[in-house]
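Worked example 2:
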Amino acid sequence: MDKNFYGEARHRSILGAILNMAGPWGNNGDNGNGGGNGGGPRNPWGSPAGGPSGGGRKGASSLEELFKRGTGGGFKGGIPKRPGGRSWWPLMAIAFVILWVLLTSIHRVSPQERGVVTFLGSYSRTLQPGLHFSLPTPLEQVTKLDVEEIRTIDIPEGESEKLILTGDQNIVDLAYSVRWNIKAPELFLFQIAEPEETIKEVAEASMRAAVANFTLDDTIGSERSEIEQTVEQNMQRLLDSYGAGVVIRGIAIKKADPPAAVNDAFKEVSAAQQTAQTYLNEARAYAQQLTAQAQGESAAFDKVYEEYRLAPRVTRQRMYYETMERVLSKVDKTIVEARGVTPYLPLPEIRKRAQQPAITTAEGK
């Protein structure tokens, strides 16, 4: 006998037992008109109104027909069968495998990325930008890394202090940043366990080594650029020896101050030093001005001496005239040429005497 026949007979026996049980509508074996339960409500599982009263089997058959129409012949769980009675599971498994292979074997690498391929966890190769194929996961896995992105590490993080000892036994509070990017993605992934933490520690060590060669004034002053270049070179050399696979793009010192506890006093000292330096610069400028003036007078005297050697009498007379002109131009003069001349009226002297009372009155007020 067919297994479907036994299954259908079993379902029918179970449904018949359920329908023959007494319920709120009375005995299911009645004819649907309430005759068997003393006028109780009508059984909804019975035959339709006006139909033949054939007992419980007629009501059960209508319910079985509903299940047959809904399930295609007998109530069966699971996925429907294919034509010919074969299952859909093999086709679904094949489709899943094909989809899995397509999704895990085709890779598109962007121009700024590189793809690192591992075969069963071991490094296999590096994919350049473009479309590539690989074995499906878990045989091969592809990790994409952006090798053009400039990453930044700030030291220290937040507003905390980073105190470093200088070459003159002073302490400076430094805050700086490290810019870097990936050069060799396979080394970056597998050579060092924690690349970013390693870069941070190397930066701190290189900064302390560089600042130890400079004084406090140089560190917070004009030598910042030299310190940055020294730290960058030391970091790159040390990371290359580790095989980190990164490139240091630059060091930027964002803050270089004395510790907060002595910052105010240091500012006062710096202000006094700047004032002293200003006075020194003014004194040097005045000294240079006097030196230039003396050199100019000496050069003029040398020229006069050369002329005096060539014509002593003429040069001596010209020097006398020039000296008298320079002296007499600053004093009042009275010149009387001969006897019988009208007496000289000292107009400049009268003018001075007229101006003196006005000056005295102004001072008294």
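The CA atoms of residues 295 and 301 lie 10 Å apart. Residues 1-7, 22-41, 44-58, 70-75 have pLDDT under 50 and may be disordered.
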